[in-house]
Model the fold of this input.
Amino acid sequence: MVQEIERCNRLALLGGEKSVAADPQDLFTWPMITAQHEEAVLKVLRAGQMSGLEVTRQFEKKYAAVLGRKYGLACPNGTDAILEAMYGMGIGVGDEIIAPSVTYWASVAQAYTLGATPIFADIDPRTLCIDPGDIEHRINERTKAIIVVHYAGMPADMDAIMEIAARYDLLVLEDCSHAHGALYKGRQVGTMGTVGAFSLMSGKSLAVGEGGIFFTDEKRIYERALLFGHYLRHDEITLNDLRPYIGIPCGGFKHRMHQLSSAMGLIQLDLYPKQMAEIDRAMNYFCDLLEDTAGLGPIRPANESHTTKGGWYYPHFHYKPEDLGGLSLSRFSEAVRAEGSVCNPGCHKPLHLHPLFTSMDVYGHQKPTRFANLNASAISGRFPEKLPVSESINSRTMEVPWFKLYRPDIIQEHANAYKKVAKNYKALLADDRGHDDEIGGYTSFHRTPSGTDPDIQ
Done:
């Protein structure tokens, strides 16, 4: 009996039994496809309307109504939606846009296409979102906009950011691709900035298969975006200074959303609130179970803040090695995975250190593209930025399981995996090789406990 107890308490990595024994079934399945989705998509397919506009316009209007915004414009993916939003906002050659360094590249890399220069700011170590305190000293006469990313579902400090934007007359683009349905002090993300943009690919919280969309209350932004990449919708353009250019997309792009995705989206808008509530219940239960565990810190809003994480896309915890004898995140994560749970060390690597933003000549300017439209005085001493939180955060954060359903018995097993490793950390110290060189990445993968079916963000 004593030997059996010892085997159960021993870490699975060291020969013990796994903490997670239950079959997850559909606990991690996403998106949840129903007969409603199938019928909506088949209706478009049978009618031969895949490249039409009617269903997409319905989706845009329905989603805009959910957010209370005047205009919505759907695109093939979130990357295109952000590019169109940037063009609509008038971002162009010689402009600078301030963005967080820790984010997916598609929050900012499109600026190159428009001749603009990304300027990276550090992140708040608590929220992993852009730090308002690191924005203002980066503003100059070339600054056009602030890019806000509600990272891993956690809303950024929009009050502080909007105050800075108002003081300096800057535009604000909210990248909400991680945070569909999230609230900031009771307000939906995507409704506070000049523009709110969303990726809708199959791994996102509100998934339509493949697609993206942006929203704004500004007619000029909407109509400029139509002119840029939606030539079949130029009949919607009313502004006199834009009308002479209708007929051909001025950006040379065709950004029409596929109507199978639009049809999927119409159903998702109806089903998502209930799904989001279920995810929120499941994830908060998991966080509650681990709230007081040494070395771990759930990243979620305070209960009384009227702030929520929506669908909890790409959920992360803080890792505190000082509470676990200095145990590296790599070793901790390895042990949790051996217990049968999900634990991927790190988050996105900082963009300001990637060669695309330090040295690459993308378009043949004979100089790094990032500096191609800046004069020498604008470059001197500014690059690469020194961002201590962004450069260290990958050793102090980890991706945790993203539960889609509230099944407390199974969720408890996953929480037990984390507790067991934290409790037995001393057994891991002797063979701790330290942090792996490649923690985090520029493309994120979401793994089930078995390590199968990754979704690329």
The first strand starts at residue 71 and ends at 75.
